[in-house]
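Pipeline run #58 for the internal structure catalog. This entry was flagged by the ingest filter as a single-chain record with no existing model, so it goes straight to prediction. Upstream metadata was stripped on purpose; only the residue string is passed forward. Reviewer on rotation: M.T. Logging verbosity set to normal.
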Amino acid sequence: MQKSQSQDLNVDPGPRNPQALDGTDLAVLAELVADGRITNAALASRVGVAESTCAYRVRALRASGVIRQVTARLDLAGLGCPLQAVVKVRLGSHDRDQVGALFDRLVRVPGVLTVLHMAGEDDFHLHVAVPGPDRLRALVLEHVTSHPVVRQVETQLVFEARDGRGVLPPAGRRSAVAGT
């Protein structure tokens, strides 16, 4: 069984040698980010490599942990959860076991999309999606403030969310950034 980050509170440093990614790897990643369901044949064609090379690259990227998973993006409003919020949590104590227990608890709360363990004034940020204000209030009161280590909670509504550009370099700079 893999040890969760919240148990040891260590952050996964990611790939051990990101310079080993060349322009082809970065192109494969960009195409998979754009369409995780793309076939190997279509991916190979878009990247400009043989299908066998493409399949090898994808396997290697998965084996190295660069590709962790492929997921579906859901329409939260279409699922009946149109209200999104960021819940900022401050702790009264930073005992390792209590922080780990809270982290483990928060990631299992229905409606929680992401839990970030923070440095600075706040200790956790939760991105949540719920059907409405009553459910947001219930989530905070039943699952967050009820934990004995929680000292303060602040909830901020999300008006709109947009995807950022991500970490992959633009197409014209992939080989230069990768060191090839």
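catalog note: Confidence is low (pLDDT under 50) at residues 1-11, 176-180.
catalog note: The CA atoms of residues 9 and 100 lie 7 Å apart.
status: ready for reviewer M.T.
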